[in-house]
Amino acid sequence: MRKLSVASAMISALTVASLAQPAIAGPVAPISYDMLNGNTGSYQYWDETYTGSGCVTCDNAALANGLGDLTDGIIATDNWFVVETPAGNGPYVGWTLDPTITFHFAPMTAIDSISVYYDDANGAGGVSTPASFWINGTNYGVTDAPGAEPNVFTVSGLGFVGDTFTLSGVRSNSWIFLSEVTFATKSTGAVPEPASWALMLGGFGITGMAMRRRAKKTSLA
Fold first, then answer.
1. Domain residue ranges in the chain
2. pLDDT per residue over 68-115, tens digit each?
3. What pTM does this model have?
4. Which class is domain 24-187?
5. Interacting residues of 109 by C-beta distance below 8 A, sequence separation 6+
């Protein structure tokens, strides 16, 4: 039987170790996002927690270099007329235009999926499911789900790598309401399962055997 060399044994062990790391999805947080602020209707649907430049209490003011309602981890669980307030400090940002949001990430950030959380009030107050979303120049239609409640639109398999990511919403009614936008990537940083650990140990065992045989052969020479 042909013996493994130390080098090939090491490669085998490292290959087993790498295969033991399953690919998983993990969240990716933007550094900032730019957009026009929301509008005033019955209430004020501004991005009032925005941390960058621009007037957070002005309709359609240009907001830049900050984070706010769309990335604060708060996802609306009810329609706008239940969770919004006259002061405008609810979870939604609402527009009477088709908003474009430019997200900024660290260089060479890999993004596999995006999830956009929106309100579907079935036309109450002019708020309905968006007609579609433009994601980095590609248009994705949104199916109007049964019922009148908040929903989420997710696109996976994006294969995006970069630092600037663009999302645009297309209204199907007078208003479009968003409460959160999240991103995820695929990584290989998972902790191996017990069976995977056994494979890894077996691979390193092969390495040890090869090294011992090499040492014995050298001592007999």
1. 6-22+191-220, 24-187
2. 999 999 999 999 999 998 877 899 999 999 999 999 999 999 999 999
3. 0.76
4. mainly beta
5. 28, 161, 162, 163, 185
